[in-house]
Amino acid sequence: MIKMVSIILMGLCLAAPAFANDGDAILKKVDRNLNPEAFEMYRKLINIEPDGAKKEFIMYSVKKGRDQVASVFLSPASEKGRATLRVEENMWLYIPNVGKPIRITSLQSVTGGIFNNADIMRLDYSAEYNCDKVDQQEGVLVLHLKAKSKSIAYDRIKMWVDDQKLLPSKIECFASSGMLIKTLYFKKIEDFGDGLVRPSVIETDSPLHKGYKSVMIFAKMKQRDLPDEAFTLNFLSRVESLR
Predict the structure, then answer these.
(1) Collapsing DSSP states into helix, strand and coil, what is residue 239?
(2) pTM for the model
(3) DSSP letter string, 136-200
(4) Per-residue model confidence as pLDDT tens digits over 7-17
């Protein structure tokens, strides 16, 4: 009887993910499940005010590696041609007819909603955070993440991850004071093709902006080889040419 119990317990242990207690390995797997190493995509960003008023933006974005992201606004007409670039923690905004790209920060927002620039120009989570601890719940792994430097938008993140799909369902973002800044909700799992199955919608709200909400909808995400030149300041005015 004792031998049988031991065999059952051993089987349960083997059934768990081999890296269940390695938070950093889990986080890297979450990153790759969310997007390929290099890809292009379209996004609609919707800012919703307490009275129901909405403002929508459509962006084309490309990403290469863990820490290079470039985007260009396709609509509305007032924003068309504006482009952003992020390389590691450095961010710039290009405005047609203004000339030289201007520096922007992670806590600002090029769309003016609850999503800040760090959310819109998201790097791999593993590029910015280390995992301090993993809590295991039924069907869920809860990752407790700590920023690698003070320049990162959120000091700490708490990420709920499906323990089978290794995709996030919810993320809480905290300031260094421990104050909750915002919550991100990952919804509507979609098959984008080539094995990429991930949430197609991210919603966010914030206790600092009660009644306001922002939504990010992903479309046409696919793997693509991209030139290094696409992630330079000189190329910012030509990001749309990659479409």
Answers:
(1) helix
(2) 0.89
(3) EETTEEEEEEEESSTTSS-SEEEEEEETTT--EEEEEEE-TTS-EEEEEEEEEEEEEETTEEEEE
(4) 333 443 333 44
Measured in residues, the chain has a length of: 243
Q: Where are the alpha helices (DSSP H) in the chain?
A: 2-15, 23-34, 117-120, 125-128
Pairing status of strand 168-174 against strand 54-64: unpaired
Among the listed residues 119, 194, 189, the one whose alpha carbon sits nearest the alpha carbon of residue 154: 119
pLDDT at position 21 is: 56
Which pair of structure tokens corresponds to residue 161?
Answer: 């991850």
Nearest-angstrom CA–CA distance, 193 and 186: 19
> Which residues, at least 6 apart from 66, have a Cβ–Cβ distance to it below 8 Å?
31, 123, 124, 126, 127
Strand partners of residue 188? none
Asked if 20 and 141 count as a contact pair (C-beta separation under 8 A), the reply is yes
Fold adopted by 18-242: outer membrane lipoprotein receptor (LolB), chain A (2.50.20)
